[in-house]
Write a sequence for this structure.
C-alpha cells in the first residue's frame, strides 16, 4: 500500500473503539478503528474531530509488539 492509498482512506466508515488501557479517568484516551480495509486508524478520543494517525495492519502489529515488549520505553 502506498501513501496515496492511506490519505484517501474513508474515515467516515470508521468504527471507533476506545482502548481497554485508557480506563475511565477522563485522561489519555486512545480510540482505534480496525474495521477499515487495509488500514488501522488511531485518534485521541478527547478530540474526535482532530488528526488521525493511519497505519497499515503490519505497521500496527509491529507497534503493538514494541509497546508490549517495552522497546518504546
Amino acid at each position: 500500500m502506498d501513501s496515496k492509498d492511506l490519505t484517501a482512506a474513508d474515515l467516515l466508515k470508521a468504527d471507533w473503539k476506545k482502548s481497554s488501557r485508557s480506563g475511565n479517568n477522563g485522561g489519555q484516551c486512545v480510540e482505534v478503528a480496525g474495521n477499515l480495509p487495509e488500514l488501522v486508524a488511531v485518534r485521541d478520543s478527547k478530540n474526535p474531530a482532530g488528526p488521525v494517525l493511519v497505519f497499515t495492519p503490519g505497521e500496527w502489529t509491529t507497534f503493538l509488539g514494541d509497546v508490549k515488549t517495552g522497546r518504546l520505553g
